[in-house]
Automatic annotation (TrEMBL):
Keywords: Cell inner membrane, Cell membrane, Membrane, Transmembrane, Transmembrane helix, Transport. Involved in the import of queuosine (Q) precursors, required for Q precursor salvage. GO terms for cellular component: plasma membrane. This is Probable queuosine precursor transporter. It is found in: Cell inner membrane. The chain crosses the membrane at residues 12-31, 43-63, 75-95, 107-127, 139-163, 183-206. It comes from Aquipseudomonas guryensis. It is a multi-pass membrane protein. Belongs to the vitamin uptake transporter (VUT/ECF) (TC 2.A.88) family. Q precursor transporter subfamily. NCBIfam families: PRK11212.1, queuosine precursor transporter. The lineage of its organism: Bacteria, Pseudomonadati, Pseudomonadota, Gammaproteobacteria, Pseudomonadales.
Length: 217
């Protein structure tokens, strides 16, 4: 059941679709940039992708499970194509020019396909878990548990498909370590920042809707 009127529901869905595509493109670019965090290998993508789970959980809470699945279905293919194009143009942080699009890039294609698979699996699991728990009186349980399991599946599905026996020797050697640290970073960022942010945004949206309902009455 949606908490938003029909006109605002359509606008919200359009914004969510655009937001998901933007975050996926950014994360697929940033995952090519490894960093060392407290002596462990990870990538900058660990800091951007948790935004997806925040947006998905708010979608399920405000619009319902069905519209959240619609967002995922509409995002998958555009995000796959856009991620490949952007990642080819800016592979490993350097601009390679438009001519790079004329050459087949297996490394980037694997990242894009891995992102596609991980996004679909992780988001649908997140939606399913969140929807089962969202009626609990403790608001934080649903986003916390859905984030834990959704990120786990998303992270290891992505890194195994993208970098197992990859042409990038560093990523092929360290992908298990990077995936584990990446998952830890995502959880830390999500639980310390995005779950509280989810609570703040949800309360703000519900207050706004309640105020408009009183005005309309």
């Amino acid at each position: 059941m949606s908490l938003l009127p029909e006109q605002r529901r359509r606008s919200a869905l359009a914004l969510l679709i655009a937001f998901h595509i933007l975050i996926i493109i950014a994360s697929n670019y940033l995952v090519q940039l490894p960093i060392t965090l407290f002596g462990w290998h990870t990538t900058w993508g660990a800091f951007s992708f948790p935004f997806i789970f925040l947006a998905t959980d708010l979608t399920v809470r405000l619009l319902g499970k069905g519209p959240a699945r619609q967002v995922i279905a509409r995002v998958m293919l555009p995000a796959l194509l856009a991620s490949y194009v952007v990642s080819v143009l800016f592979q490993e942080g350097a601009f390679h020019g438009i001519a790079a699009l004329g050459q087949f890039n297996e490394f980037v294609l694997r990242i894009s396909v891995a992102s596609f698979l991980a996004y679909v699996l992780g988001q649908f699991l997140d939606i399913q878990v969140f929807d089962r728990l969202r009626r609990l009186p403790q608001w934080w349980i649903a986003p916390t548990l859905s984030t834990i399991v959704g990120n786990l599946l998303d992270t290891f599905a992505f890194f195994s498909v993208a970098f197992w026996r990859s042409s990038n020797a560093f990523m092929a050697e360290h992908w298990v370590e990077i995936a584990t640290v990446d998952y830890g970073v995502k959880l830390a960022v999500s639980l310390m920042l995005f779950v509280p942010l989810y609570g703040l945004l949800l309360n703000a949206i519900l207050r706004l809707l309640a105020g408009r309902a009183r005005v309309a009455a």
